[in-house]
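Dear colleagues,

As part of the handover before I leave the project, I'm documenting each prediction I ran so the next person doesn't have to rerun anything. This entry is a single chain, and its sequence is reproduced below.
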Amino acid sequence: MGRFVIVCGGTGGHLAPGVAMAQELTARGHTCTLILSEKEVDSRLVKKYPEFPVVRSPGSGFSMRPRGFVRFLSGVLRAIFFALRWYRDERPDAVLAFGGFLATAYVLAASSHDIPIFLHEANRKPGKAIRFLARFADRVYLPHDVSLRALWMFGAKHIGFPIRRDVRHLPKEMVRQSLGFPRHAKLLVVFGGSQGAVVLNEWAEQHLESLTSDGIHLIVITGPGKGEEVSHTRVSESGEAVTARFLPFADYMGSLLSAADLVVSRAGAGSIAEITECLAPAVLIPYPYSADQHQQENAAYLERKGGCLLLPQSDMKGLYREVLDLIFNDWLLSRMRGNLRALQRGNEAAHIADDMERILIRLRGEREAPESLSREEEEAEVRA
């Protein structure tokens, strides 16, 4: 069995698929170590998965500002030296990286140690780290229908986003009961992910009275450090009690998304993958400052497939009307759920694990073949 290093720290969009791959590989008998950053978002999510060993790595996010760029370069150097020492002691069989500022250091260090390297790009517009590191990789996993000339020559394969085993579509009646919401009420779930949550939080607060007056229950995941847990109870125009909950963090996204009639979210690849898995129709508002505008590309693709409505942040004034038009249109919501179901491609974590195992077997064979030949030559010389 193999020893895998999974570099997935920095954002929830990297950590969640890293955990999914650790779950799949561990179930097959492999051992996995997660390489995380020192950010709070990593600490929050990984607490739910104490079964996986974790290594906290130095490093700093990329920035074009002079001071930020110096911090980034300094962090990369510190992380490279840290990784070199760690690889020397642990001797892993393979490295799987999901992009971000930690990936650069750990992939470069793995290349110097001749450790097989696998990269996964979740966004429909590959980031700087993946574009740079692809030349060192034995395999680059890209989203379906993404084709880039710069990557095809580096062993690209089209595989989707690996989903954690605890994020699955569940019967709405069951999760509504567990969450304490009426079975036939309308439920809106709002979350901004690890970036860009503030704008969505403010919108939810500003429209709290109007939403609850219209009979719409509300759950808002505000994000770590963006407020305390708060619950409000209002009376709708029809005289029914309506609940609004603001939560800094929730580790049961599968239940929340399965219970929702409609989701308002940013357009990170991880959010879209979980929305698709849980069949949750959505209004996606791409974070306008995302690197290379990748969230815009993600949301545009899902809208073309009929699984969401894309609304630019510049048009946020129209969000309330869009929510009302969608959440009470049961026919359209059903159509969107059907479109999301058509996008599901099975267990992507298993597909990735299958491919990595095949490649590692081939690489081991290639490395052992010259050694076998040299022993045969030595024996021939002895006989001579």
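The first strand starts at residue 3 and ends at 7. Residues 192 and 200 are 6 Å apart (CA to CA).

All the best with the project,
I.
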